[in-house]
Amino acid sequence: MFVGAVFFPLLGAIISGLFGRLIGDKAAQWTTVFFMVLAAVCGVTAFFEVGFGSAPRTEVLFTWVDVGDMQFSWALRYDTLSAMMVGMVTFISTFIHLYSVGYMSHDETPSRFFAYLSLFTFMMLMLVTADNLVQLFFGWEGVGLASYLLIGYWYERESACNAAMKAFIVNRVGDVFFMLGMALTFYVFSSVEFGAIFAAVPQHVNDRFLGLPALELIGVLFFLGACGKSAQLGLHTWLPDAMEGPTPVSALIHAATMVTAGVFLMARMSPLMEYAPVALSIVTVVGASTALFAATIGCVQNDIKRVIAYSTCSQLGYMFAAAGVGLYQASVFHLFTHAFFKALLFLGAGSVIHAMSDEQDIRKMGGIWKKIPITYAMFWIGSLALAGIPIFAGYYSKDAILEGAIAAHSGVGTYAFVCMVLAAFLTAFYSWRLIILTFHGAPRADHHTMEHVHESPAVMLIPLLVLSLGAIFTGFTFAPYFIGEHQAEFWNGAIFNLPAKHMIEAMHHAPHWVATLAKTVALSGIVLAFAIYMGAPKLPAKVAGAVPGLYRFLLNKWYFDELYNWLFVQPLRRLARGLWQTGDVRIIDGMPNGAAAITAGMGRSAMRLQTGRVASYAFAMIIGLVVFVSLFLLGR
Q1: Please, what is the end-to-end C-alpha distance for the chain in angstroms?
Q2: Tens digit of pLDDT for each residue in 593-611?
Q3: Contact, 342 vs 247, CB < 8 A?
Q4: 417 lies in which domain range?
């Protein structure tokens, strides 16, 4: 069961990828779905056995590395944190696979797509079940590779190829820091195995490296690595462009796999991060800033998938802010609930795109809610959960994060609280802006498109309905175990908190006005969106015209892409061009090519002497003899 949950997706990927043409596209699709169902059954069962049965275990597969002082095995670590991730990833990925059967029905190479999708799932499962840093890094790089393949799946589109390259390169920047953190960890602890590292952390609290506290430096390096995968401020630029891939890819990346890897890393390394308060403060500030930054951009985007993408970026900021104040349990709980309602929103967006003949611009939609009522209802459920409205899943996890920020009683905690409250208001606002512009008002699409608007087939609607149940029920069902009275026995040591911090207890004693404020700002954002986009639909254009600089600033995503292009891309291009034209063409190629050209010229000159005439050769010999005799006589 524990091994199957991880390796069934790999088996499906191999069959679909290598034998897809042989068995046919339909067989390849349903084979990967079948193996994902098996993986989900194993993964969910493992989650309940480990998390609720208090039965953590490690499945050792084989010895991987045994070189000098470095020995570790390829093993599957199943504590509550890993088991929760395995259950969530396999469950959601299964329904994304099922949804893809309908969504990709007209694609030319579905077997290739399903092979990539299952490979992506396998790599994420390898990451979350890793028992050591090297194995985790294997999965870490694996999801990067799989995301590159999936984002650039439609490789005939230049925009898709550019987006895939951008995601790959930006993530490599973060991965450099991860590798440095891994190397420093081995230097300090002489091990890369989590058990050995975590047990030895208290003994190395005072260690220093290059004059800096070693644990703080390791924490910062791992966080910078996490910023790449989880698209935190500064390394976030790849995330909106990742929408170039098929919509199921967006759902899988944003809901259950790649972008959650950084949050998982912070929770996994909690026994070390707890002894690195400066690193945690940096995590808090960057996470909270990302939450607000992404929310401001989401308010003006016009691509249906990009709006949801920026909401992911913002919600990841919440998760990091929670980890930064030491409330890893709330961080992972929000990761868990977010997976359901974010997958629901992305697959709902895919259903809208499917209905609108591949149109993604919400300015060309409107007036379609009666034609696709099930998709419309699913959008409402996902948005209510995202906004944190009571009884829906996001309410329980987001409120816990806000309460934890206040309970931290620190300057960075207060800063995070203010940023996240503002982000909560903007999240509710842009979520209902998206609903209203997409589904309500007069139709803005052409007549031909409106005639063909239709509800998605059952194979696409069933995953939406199942995920909607998760968006409703996972919050209050699992809150007692993730962050409530049963959290200690549920986590069973998988997440570590310093006893002196008492963060869970402090969170539950946060002032009552925190929860009231959270609900108030969420409802206010919804009301404002209705008032503007339903009551005064011409007002947004007037506001944009009144403050065109601010509108362009937000629409162009704070000009991060332009800034990076000026700072890094163009200088590197000029450097590369100089190395090519001067270093390569003139020096590296020029010197040997020049020598070859001289030799060839000398050869051509020598060839002119070979006339083939005996008289010419005899005349040359006579001249040579005369010269030789003359020199001999002069020498005497």
Answers
A1: 104
A2: 777 778 887 777 777 767 7
A3: no
A4: 290-493+500-555
